Each structure stands twice: as structure tokens, then as C-alpha cells.
Amino acid sequence: MRVSYQHTNIRSGNESTLLRFTAADGTRACVLVDAGGAVDLDSALGDDEYLNAILLTHAHIDHYRSLARNVRHNAPIYTSPATATLLEQTLPEAQKDNDLGEISEAMDALEPIDDWTAVLANLDVRPVSAGHTPGAAGFIIRFRDRTTTDELLNGEQHILATGDFTTRPCAGFPELQTTYPFDIDAVLLNASTEDTYRTALNESLQTVLERAYAGSQVVIATSSLTGLHYAILLGHTAAALDRELPITMVGQAAKLYNALELDDPGIETREVFERTATVLEQGRVTIAGPETPQKGSAARLLNAVKDDPTGVFVQLATGDAAPVTNVSCTTRYIELRNHPSIETIDRVVRELAPKQVVIKHAVGDTLKQFQRRFDHCFTWGTNDEEIHRLYEAGEWQAPEWIAETAATQIRTRQWERAQNQPFDPDGMRSPVRRDAVDLEAEGVDLDALETTFGRPSTDPYSASASDGDGTAVDVEEDRPQRGEDDSIEAELLARLEAIETKLDRSEETVRARVLSDGNGEQFLHLLEQADIEAGDTVEIIVSGTDSEETKR
């Protein structure tokens, strides 16, 4: 068996790879991993070559932009079941603003798989969870070589194509695992990195929860898959804090959530809405797209809150969106890209201990840096679209630019690593399916959020409220008990009378929370009922001690 790889879009993202598997009898299989921008199989495939399969790792457009244009030879498009469901929604939507080719052909070729699936007699593929985004998968590619001397696994060799990955779960979908019941001999390693994800995630949660619990209308603009991920984390965070938080997903994000048939705390969906008022509310978080609010639901919602000084507009940017400016509402721009840190990539390679690493989703200097990063495996950081041979005649090949003495040293380190490699015969995780959401594993600093938001503010409509000096006032005791013949109207009047009596006391105070838009403007959010209307002008007397202030 001979195995080679070829970059197919080195200048347009470099996430796409054509793998060739050639048996001793000349039988050849061609497998494309992802179909990003500028992939052209008409140029890459020889006259006597046929495409046998496309492996699509996840439903981000930079990985499927050329998918429809490269479907041919009745080749299936293998994906995880969740990604196949998402693509049925994202392909038609993305086609509105992008030339994706005949997407109906791609949709017809979609074939979700969750176990080993044969491409040829001696070639199989299987998806494995990869974190990063809901439904994302890497792929294990298993081939058998009769010329190998490896009798233990009957000549089986394994390649892992990571796709974009994290070692954190994502919205309940598991992370990329690094222990398998067999050796990973080669890795197609997507090397996109991000060191600030956890910090950005918790900064955004702090902002959103603070303003929503203070009664602001909060709008989040982001990409549909990030909106899906973020809504799930936000809903489960509020549930863990034992605080109610209404969340509405609108537009494409709502369609994706409904397509996956998810059910998470506090989340409701509105795929289509006629008036923005139906999806906006004080204390509600509304999630829409795209992250650049120049069109779509995000543009409509920004227009609805931009003149509200207590409103909040948050952009969770995954691309190069421009920050919103020149509006009266509070704005926040937070880059939220869910990729691993460089230290995590080092750990993944160390734990997998492959013989070969092919660097993907990187170009130029980054490729060169990775060529020198790992000293225990052969690292291919090629900046071209040539065909490079990885495996032949039962052996994994060294790159031609590595001297024989250096290659011998690397093979020695490989052997040493293999002796300490964990081996778990039952270590193959279940297919790419959603588990329970583990907030801390996903990067949420729940302890910090509980310190800030763990105790709910007083509910002015509860049976027990606090008067101005901190003494509990039981509204239930102040109102007459309703008999069988009392009307609902009488009960409501009694409740109002009790509240008015409480507010009319000469020393009564109404508690409020001070809000800031971050630009020097301050606002008061009343925490108790008061006989005032929106737009009223009132006088505020601030008094208190060294430890606290009371707003009256």
C-alpha cells in the first residue's frame, strides 16, 4: 500500500487535503478531507483517478465552500449525523450570499455515519468527536497493508484527520480524544490556535448576565453556530446559578437549534418574527445573526435598541466583523474563537505520539515553525500543492529534506514514546453524539459567576418583601383573605392597596441598582415597585454609611 497527501487550497485556508491510497495491484482510492475555498478536483485528480469519498468535518463555510462544486463520481459526503442535519439548514442559507455551486447535489450526496464505514475493501473511515463547534468531527482512516510486518493488528494503520478541534466539549458534544485502542500512525493536524477563548467566554457571560439581571434588553449578534453554542452555555449557566433567564434565539440560529431537536434551560426559538418587540423584552437575551449587523435579524434588532441607553448590543466575533459604533445603547465587541492553545496542540501531539504529522489550516511562517516544533515525529509543513508520499512498502516515510542521521534520531524517539503510550482496548468513544453539558469542562468559570450572581435580587412581587429599614413586610398578612365569593378583582385591589401602603410610609425607601454603560453614563434599575411611569422626572436623594449607600 502507498499513501500520499496533497494540499488542495494552500492559498485559501489550507484546510482541505486529498489523500490517495494505492494498493499493490494498482487499485487507487481518493479521499478529500474538507472542501474549503478554491478546491478544484478537476485540476487535482488525474485522468485515471476517481473520487471515492469526501470527509466533511463540520458545518463552517470555510470547510464546505467548494463542496457542491467538487461532488462527482457518485462519491458520498461522510459527516457526523449532527453535521448532516445542520448542513441541510446552512447550505441553502449560505447560498444566498455565496456562489456554492449546485447545492442540491451536495445535499443528495450527504451520508451521515457514526461507525466504521468501508470506502474500499481495505479502507474504512469513522468519525470521532472533535469539540470546536456543535456536531464537529475528526475522522479516523484505517487501511490494511499486506506488505507490513505488523501481525498484531493484521497490518492495520491509522490516520487521524482532526479537522478544527478542541479538547473542550462544545455545547455537550464531546472533545477530541487522544487515547485509542490502537496506534495513531499519522495525523492531519489543523493548527489554528487561540489563547484567549476562556477569558473571552467568561467576560461575555459576565456582561450579558449583569445587564440582563439588571433589566436591560440584551441583544447578541454572532454567527449561527456560535449563537447555538453560546445560547446553550448561557441557559445552563443561569440554571446552575438557580436564576431565571429568558433566552430567545431568532433566525438561522433558531433553525439550527430546532433542527437538532434540542431542549435546554430557558431557551425558546423564533425562526421568523414580524415585529422586533415580540422577541425583545427587559431582562431577556435575544441571540441573532450575523455578527456584522448590516442585514438580517441582527440588523433589525440593533435598530430597535440602538437609541435605548439602557439597552445592550454584544457582538461575539468569530471572523473579521467591524465593531458597532455611533449608537446610544451599550455595545460590547468580544472575539470568541473556539480553538485550542498552542500548548494544547503540543499536548495532543505528545499524547497521540504519531509517526507523521501533516500541518493543516496554516500557511507561510506558521508552517515553517511547525516543521521544527516536534522532535519525536516527522512533521510535514509543506507550502505547496505537490503530492507527498507518507507511507510505502510497509513503512512510514521521512520527508526528503530530512537527513538520514536526523531521521534515525526521530525514529528512535518514536520507539521510546511508543513504549510509554497508553493503550486502552475499550478506549474508542461512542459516536459523535451529545452528552450532558459540563460547564466547567467547556470553559465556564462557574465559581466566579456564582460569587457575582448566585443570590437573586429581591422580587417586589413575592409574598415577603423588605421595608426601608430591612424589616420584612408580609404582603400576604396585610391583605384580607379571599373567601369563596370574593372576586379576582377584589384580590388584585387588596394586593395594590398593600403595596401602596408600604410605599406611602414616611421613611419608606425604594431600592435600586446603579448601572453603567462603560462610557461614564449611569442608570438606576428599580428593584421594587414604585408609583412612577417611564419618562417621569424624579429627584434622587443619595444617603448612606461608609459601607453602603441607600438610593431614595
TrEMBL record:
InterPro entries: MBL (IPR050698), Metallo-B-lactamas (IPR001279), RibonucZ/Hydroxyglut_hydro (IPR036866). Gene3D superfamilies: Ribonuclease Z/Hydroxyacylglutathione hydrolase-like. SMART domains: Lactamase_B (SM00849). It holds the Pfam family Lactamase_B_2. Residues 451-485 are annotated as: Disordered. It comes from the Archaea. PANTHER family: CLEAVAGE AND POLYADENYLATION SPECIFICITY FACTOR FAMILY MEMBER, INTEGRATOR COMPLEX SUBUNIT 11. This is Beta-lactamase. It comes from Natrialba aegyptia DSM 13077.
